[in-house]
Each structure stands twice: as C-alpha cells, then as structure tokens.
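Dataset card, provenance and construction

Sequences and ligand SMILES were collected as paired inputs. For each pair, a complete structure of the chain with the small molecule in place was predicted and serialized as structure tokens. The example below shows a pair involving zinc ion. Curators did not alter the output after generation; any descriptive sentences attached to a record were derived from the structure itself.
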Amino acid sequence: MKVDEMNITDEYYTWLFRYNPKELYGKKFSFPLFFLATTINYSVRPWKYFSVDAILVNAYDILSNPREKAMISKHGLRKYLGFDGIILVDSGGYMFTKHKDIPVTPTRIVNLYEKWKPDIAVTLDHPITPELPENEVKKRLITTINNTKIMYETGNWKKITFMPVIHGYKESDLKFIISKLEKIGAFDYYGIGSLVPLLRPLNEKNLKLAIRVIMKVRELLPDRNLHAFGIGGVGMMPLAFLAGADSTDSTVWIMSTAMKEILSINTSTFRLKNKEEIEREVKTCGCPICREYRNSRKLMEDRNARAIHNAWAITNLAKRLRSHKDNLPSFIYEHIKDNKMMVKLYNYIINYKKQNLISQYIKSDE
Ligand SMILES: [Zn+2]
C-alpha cells in the first residue's frame, strides 16, 4: 500500500489514553498541558489575572536569587508563588554546567526539592548541543544517568513526581539512555531535553531534528507521559503535541514582552510588531487587558499589560488545543497553514506517522 492511500484520520490521535483527565496530588488536569515557564522574581504573575494550569520554574534561577531562595525554602514554592496548580521545578542542569559559581550536587538538589515541595521535580541533567563531539555526548549522557540514579535513590518521592530527562539526537543515544533510565525506576513521566539548542538558529533542519527526537522517544515509550522541555512557543507547541509530547513549556511570553512583541494565536506571524496587526489583535483578544482597553497603545507602552496579554495568548493556545483534541491535526493545520516552515514540519510529522502506521499494519499482517 502506498503512503498516500493510507487515510490518517483525526481519530488516529484520539486513541491515546494519556489525553484522559488526570490527577496529581489532588490537582486535576488534562493533557496536552502547557507549563508557563517563569523566572522566580518576574514582576508579573499571570495566574493572578486568569486561570493557569501549570508553572515551570528553574532551580538554578532560584539558587541565583538568595532572598527568594530563603523564602521558598521556608514556605515552599506554592505559597511563594501564590499558585495552586501544578508546579514543576527544572534543575537548570545546563546553567549549572555553564556557570560553575553555584556548586551543586544531585543530593543537594534533592534536599532543596524536598523543602520547596513542587509537584514535579526534574533530575540534575547535563544537556547536549548539536556541535558536541560524540565522546562528550556520551559523557554527558552517562552523567545524567548517574545523577538520576543518585537522586531517585536518595529522595523521598511519595509526594513529588520525579522526572528523569532523556537526551540525544541519534536513535542509538536515545535507546541507550532510555534503557539505562528504565533500569533505575518505574517512571511514568519523562522529560525530553536538549531541544532548546535546536531552536537557535531557527531553521528547518534543526526543527525537524527536534520533532524527530520527540517522535522517536514517543515510539520507544508509547505508554508514558512525555514533557518536551522549552519548545512551547506559539508555532512549535502544537507541533510538539502532534509529534507525541503530552506537555511542553516556554518563556516566550517573557522574551517577547522584553522585545516589545505581541504574541498572537490568530496570525501565522505569531509574534507581532506591526501596529496595524496589533490593532487587529486587540480587537478580538479575550485577555483581561484587551477586554478592558481594546487599545494597542496600552500593550506597547505598558510592559506589565503586554506581559499579561502575552501570557494569556500562549496559555489560551494550549487550552484551545486541548479542547480540540478530537480533531487535533486539522485544528493545528488551520493554526499554522499560512506559515511555510510550519507547514513543512506539519507534513513531516504526518508523513512519518503514516509510515509508522503502515509498518505496524504490515507487522500485524505477518
Ligand atoms: Zn490581549
């Protein structure tokens, strides 16, 4: 049978049981899920203005801010942030390897996690980048595996979900790290890391690689929850879900606010700078700021207003994707269809999944 004769229907995606409602320590949520990533002392807290499902913060960031760290260690993250949804703490492994000024060990991070009390806590991992030589990649993979073992064995993981992180750009590396992690414990929520270095520079080759990594991990771990770290921008978030991630995160709302950009979920430009485009955006936007002002000047001149709009846009995109989980591919296509590079990536995912369906079909026939 030729690929084109296979009809990939929207229903193909709905069999995935992981999209059913879930509960984590009494907090109800559904996949696909977006974590609004924030720096620990950012002045705007969007969850005070509208409902946010989940937040991601970073251990390196907390440790770099002694005043905040002291408060969080004393009261816990939930109280410090004033947030009762799901809180994930990323270790910030990449930052720790880059800046050696903050000494850290896997056991120290475990002790901090136990004080901070997030819902999900991430292993102290050592991410890779595309230009690293093979022997260095292997070294980092092994460090990540060893740290994971130490943290899993020393921590008390009854009230915190421990998240190991998978790294690798090649199938053999992905298989290697997954097989080692699977020997350490029965994990039901895995992270996929080292995707952020593939976003810069933004080109088709790198984005395809990021998508391929997600699809490969999904194939290797079909029944686990997967978090794709750091690629939850307005264009990439839907594609990450389509490729098989259950959740992702992004600081795009903070970065675009700093760059005087307005996030849009209604145009394929995604990040607006042009006054007329922004004017059109605020007319239909449902965020608390646009509903009150309907004025592009407010967004451009008031940084906090802009941050709230941008946080709302990215959060709302995730909510819309979730509400269209029964026709996810066609909904996503509508969202990205005017952006050439995104359409190429979309087709890449759909064709890959078709091929996969065919090989399963042939196997089951044998
Ligand atoms: Zn708005």
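Derived descriptions for this record:
The pocket of zinc ion is lined by residues 282, 285, 287, 289-290, 309, 312 (CB under 6 Å).
The longest strand covers residues 33-37.
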